[in-house]
Amino acid sequence: MAPKLPADDSEDNVGISSYVRWVAWLTLCLWLLVVPAANAYLDPGSGSLVFQVVAGAAMALSLGVKVFWRRIRMFFARRSDE
Predict the structure, then answer these.
(1) pTM given for the model
(2) Average pLDDT in the 17-29 region?
């Protein structure tokens, strides 16, 4: 195990790391605000496709929960007994 340096506990390091995180967060937010033009076209069928994918995933998830409900319930019931 490496010896702990005295500078590791100083509040200056904590302040610098929080400042670096804040600057990184601000830079990311500003970078996301400045988006170049995409010059792309989305036809109405694209929205319909996305809706169908989301609806299908929700139906598949609900069917999976329905089929395996007893196993799911027993899995969590065993965990609470221990």
Answers:
(1) 0.43
(2) 90
